[in-house]
Amino acid sequence: MRIIVLAAILVLATGSAHAMQLSSPAFANGGRLALAQVNNRCGGSNQSPVLEWTGAPPGAHSYALTLFDPDAGGGRGFWHWLVFGIPASATALPEGAGGGTGLPQGAMQVVNDFGEAAYGGACPPPGSGVHHYEFTLYALDIATVPSGELMKSGDLVAYLKAHALAAAQLVGIYSR
Prior knowledge:
It is built from two helices and eight strands. By secondary structure, it is α+β, with helices and mostly antiparallel strands. It has a single domain, classed as Alpha-Beta Complex (Phosphatidylethanolamine-binding Protein), CATH 3.90.280. Strands 6-4-3-7-8 form a five-stranded antiparallel sheet. Strands 1-2-5 form a three-stranded antiparallel sheet, with no helix packed on it. It is globular, with a radius of gyration of 17 Å.
């Protein structure tokens, strides 16, 4: 019995050692987004935060990143940022990468619900309560997404999930 328990502990420890993690020095998981990450339409600087990750699974050929507000649109949610084609060698994105200049070569942004192929910061309606901004990083088994830049956000995310070897999430909150 002790051998089985020990084997189970080793399996769990090994599995957790390879868990992908996403973090940012700009805010803690569950913490409030800074004004820098707020859309300029709502008085912010509209700068995507520094994002860093560790624990990529073996076999990852690229990464994709999404930013989604599930509290917007009466429960429909709102896509703020969609990026794919981030090279497997990358471990971070610099502040402001969502403006296009800091993205690694080969990475592409998809049109968000603001109608822009760029980062669109937090901008909840006044009085709508706390919104949760979910940054999700996908480690993919493919190097790129065929015609991904032409896909609608929902279709792209479904494709990413189908090719994800692992995913990690970081959530920031904001309200007005």
